[in-house]
């Protein structure tokens, strides 16, 4: 009897390097996605607070976050472009046969990408040049374009998980394409909202984590308090929401992709009263080594009853399901994601309890230590979510319609490994440059906060983000004239 391992051993030699290259570039790109999707909203939220309350600290934070947003977007251009080329170069079989069916999602994402680039440029240009509220309203479409880009990507991915909107001719090629049906697949809604909430939650925790570190180092001013509270509050509100959305998404997988669900929960045989395993490793004979076994819980979570029947991996041929190694990877990724989500709920409850009782932040340093780690933990859950989605679907690139091995490029494996090495080097340089730029901005802002001019020239940013910059004199920066009430502009300034 042929096992799944035998099937994998007979795969084309170029399949492994193609997979590794795609996995590396996707894992690298997705670390930037939360900021591309959610940072515009968090920035505008701070911007609105600054204008509504005439709060210069909030306006300064919004301005600085917009600069980080622009740098992140520039790096995302590089990593996103590489990914778009890889779809055609590494998986020509899929794009050649199915591109006309699900390609609209990539088109929507591309249009959203260019529109977002234009809006970011306008938003950055508007500081000190536009009237305050005019500037704010010109930035409002930014989060919408980010959500539109996410719409396109998730439409394409959800189609790969639950393909529909086409018929097959006698040669197996898709015909009679229904674009609406191809976009709004059964998994689109669950995937989209799970993804969007994850992006906002992750960006909130990462941004707040930066100011949590500053708080631990003794920076207890209003600037750091606001920088922590606004993004952390967004993340804390969304954390329990995400837990419920994630549960609904897992149940959608149970109904729409039962074999993937079996991999996520390492269920070998179809049965009722199925136990839940926290971690553990699936063996070739179907046994599970290690992990924490909770009787009947998997059936209860899947259908709210111990008698719920859960489909096992052996319900399909070995060639049509993930290998035991792939199932274990998907299972561990899923369990890590759920475990971190549970810990983040506890952190959010801690924050909420202290705020409701005292209208103040928690006083324990352990809270801020946990908040500082929450950002990295959230990024890990994003990575685990994509691992679960992609590895759990194996061996299909288009679920039940095309295998990954049938879609891979005919390019020689050696060439792909060489390309992989080059991409790794380029990405290390790109992300190193990104980190260097962000750290340089942080140093400049820190100097500005203590009232010193930047060593490379320019005045410290102690003035309002609206109105002219202070003039730099030999004695130091000369303060800008006071702004006219309600305008944010200096008297006699340009309209």
UniProtKB/TrEMBL annotation:
It is a multi-pass membrane protein. InterPro entries: Cyt-d_ubiquinol_oxidase_su_1. Signal peptide: none annotated. Keywords: Cell membrane, Electron transport, Heme, Iron, Membrane, Metal-binding, Transmembrane, Transmembrane helix, Transport. Residues 458-495 are annotated as: Disordered. Pfam families: Cyt_bd_oxida_I. GO terms for molecular function: electron transfer activity; heme binding; metal ion binding; oxidoreductase activity, acting on diphenols and related substances as donors, oxygen as acceptor. It is found in: Cell membrane. The chain crosses the membrane at residues 21-46, 67-89, 101-124, 136-160, 192-214, 226-245, 329-354, 366-388, 416-440. One of its GO terms (cellular component) is cytochrome complex. GO terms for biological process: aerobic electron transport chain. Its main location: membrane. The keyword Heme applies. PANTHER family: CYTOCHROME BD MENAQUINOL OXIDASE SUBUNIT I-RELATED, CYTOCHROME D UBIQUINOL OXIDASE. Belongs to the cytochrome ubiquinol oxidase subunit 1 family. This is Cytochrome bd-I ubiquinol oxidase subunit 1 apoprotein.
